[in-house]
């Protein structure tokens, strides 16, 4: 299995980038996330939480098992958690191998992460393993687009992957999720209106074990 290794320079740069883009991301995705994250249990697991962009949507007091292998995200992640009253249980592990017990969590959250994990199918299978029967994977992901977006993604794939440490703008995450073996998937495809064209084609929804 290829393991994600944070680059010492780009890992820090990405941490800074996500912190700077926090409000813009909230502007773009806040309503959608608020709807998806309504009704979360007290303890959830989050894959690749980065700098904690989702913490603003969680109830204060929520315990988040944070599966985040990039050490450069940690200080912003813990500061963000403290500011929002979130208890973070940080695990420096990849989503493909979380180390969590089988059937131990009710909800796994994953936003803009399956684009970057080296083995997204392994990450989704690992999620299925740790979810209890009936448990939910809540996801928001950018995906391969069509027409003009496909051309834009083709043109920018290499520099994007380099800067964002492995982020694949042409990944067919919908099929990865559909092939993984969930009992039910509720998924919406939409086009974001952001200045970051390659990540505008997106999917969001809930996959139930
Ligand atoms: C684009 S950022 C998204 C951060 C956050 N989820 C958000 O919505 O803003 C991708 C995140 O995935 C993390 N990541 C990369 N490879 C990973 C892996 N194999 N397992 C878990 N997280 C990973 C990165 O360190 C980074 O925090």
Main beta sheet strand tally, sense and closure: 7 strands, mixed
N-to-C CA distance: 24 Å
In CATH, the homologous superfamily goes by the name Vaccinia Virus protein VP39
What's the CATH class label?
Alpha Beta
Low-confidence stretches: none
Q: What is the domain tally? A: 1
**Portion of residues within helices:** 25-40%
Walk me through this protein's architecture.
With 209 residues, the protein is an alpha/beta fold. The protein has one domain (8-208): Rossmann fold (3-Layer(aba) Sandwich), CATH 3.40.50. It has 6 helices and 7 strands; from the N terminus they run ααββαββαβααββ. Strands 3-2-1-4-5-7-6 form a 7-stranded mixed β-sheet, sandwiched between helices. The longest helix is centred in the C-terminal third of the chain and has 17 residues, at 147-163.
Comma- or semicolon-separated keywords:
209 residues, alpha/beta, Rossmann fold, 7-stranded mixed sheet, 6 helices, 7 strands, 35% helix, binds S-adenosylmethionine
């Amino acid at each position: 299995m290829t393991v994600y290794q944070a680059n010492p320079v780009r890992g820090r740069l990405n941490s800074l980038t996500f912190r700077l883009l926090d409000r813009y991301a909230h502007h773009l995705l806040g309503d959608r996330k608020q709807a998806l994250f309504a009704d979360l249990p007290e303890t959830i697991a989050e894959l690749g939480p980065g700098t904690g962009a989702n913490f603003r949507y969680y109830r204060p007091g929520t315990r988040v098992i944070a599966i985040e292998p990039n050490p450069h995200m940690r200080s912003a992640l813990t500061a963000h958690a403290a500011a929002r009253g979130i208890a973070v249980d940080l695990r420096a592990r990849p989503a493909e191998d979380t180390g969590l017990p089988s059937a131990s969590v009710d909800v796994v959250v994953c936003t803009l992460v399956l684009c970057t994990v080296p083995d997204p199918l392994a990450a989704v299978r690992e999620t299925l393993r740790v979810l209890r029967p009936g448990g939910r994977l809540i996801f928001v992901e950018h995906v391969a687009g069509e027409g003009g977006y496909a051309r834009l993604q083709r043109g920018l794939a290499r520099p994007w992957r380099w800067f964002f440490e492995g982020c694949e703008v042409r990944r067919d995450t919908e099929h990865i999720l559909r092939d993984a073996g969930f009992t039910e998937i509720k998924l919406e495809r939409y086009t974001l209106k952001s200045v970051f064209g390659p990540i505008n084609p997106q999917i969001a929804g809930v996959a139930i074990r």
